[in-house]
Amino acid sequence: MSWIGAVLVLAGSAICLVAALGVVRLPDFFMRMHAATKAGVAGSGLVLLGVAAIDGDASTWAKAIVAVGFLLLTTPVAGHLIGRAGYVSGVPLWRGTREDALAEVLGRGDFDTEVPQAAQAGAVRRVVVGLAAGPGLDRAIEEAVRLAQAHGAELCGVAVIDVPRLLNVGPVPIGAGWHAQQMRQRRVQQARTAAADAMQQFEATAVRARLAWSAQLVEGRPRKVLGAFCDDGTHIVVAAGAWFDQGVLGLQVDVAGRLAWAGARPVRVVR
What we know:
Structural class: alpha/beta
Helix content: 55-70%
Number of helices: 9
Strand content: 5-15%
Strand order of the largest sheet: 3-2-1-4-5
Number of domains: 2
CATH topology of the largest domain: Rossmann fold
CATH architecture of the largest domain: 3-Layer(aba) Sandwich
Number of strands: 5
C-alpha cells in the first residue's frame, strides 16, 4: 500500500505540474481554466488517495473519499460557472478559435473596463429586424433600414420559426397519432416557406438601401433567439401584427410583452 500510495501521490503531483504549466502557457482564459479544473479534481484527488493509502487508517480513507467526492461535485460546476461568466462578460477567445458554439445561445458583453464614448452616448451599432410573415412586416423592414441608415449601423434580419408552438397540436385522440404528426410537419414546412419569403423581402430591401447587412434563419423560441442579440449597441425591430409562427396559426399576441428582456433595450414594435 505504501508503494501504491507513493505512485498515486506522484501521479497527482505530475498532473498538478502539467496543469500549472497549462495555466501559464495556454493562450486564453478558457483553456487555462480547463487546465486549472483538471488539477483541482484529478491532481488533488490522486494526492488525497495516495496519502490515505500510505497512512492506511480507515478514518483517513473516509476523509479522503469525502474530500474527493466534494471535489467531483463542486469543481466542474464552479468551472462551468466561471467559464460562463467569462464568456458573457466578453473575455476574448483565442485567435485560433474556429467555431464559437455559444454565439447564438449567450450574449457577450464588452470586456474592456473603459466604456467607449460612443457606447456611453447610446450609439447604435446594429439593427436587428425580426422577420415574421404577417401584417406590418414591410413597415418593420423599412423602419429597420431607416434606423441603420441614420446611425450607420449594420442591418441584420433574423427569421425565427417558433417550432415549439407549431408542434403543439393539443391533445391527440387515440389512433390519431399519425395524423397529428403529419399536421406538425405540414405546419413547420409552411412556416419555413413563409420565413424564406420574408427573408427574400428583407434582402431585396437591404440591397436597394446599399447597407451592410446579413440574414439568418433560426428555429426555436423567439424570445431566446432574439435575446441572444440584445446588447447596448443593438436595436430590435419587430412588426406588431405578426408572430413567429410565420402566419401559419394566425396568432394575435402581444409582441412587445412576449419579447421583453430584463435589462435589455426595449423592442421597437412597428404598427
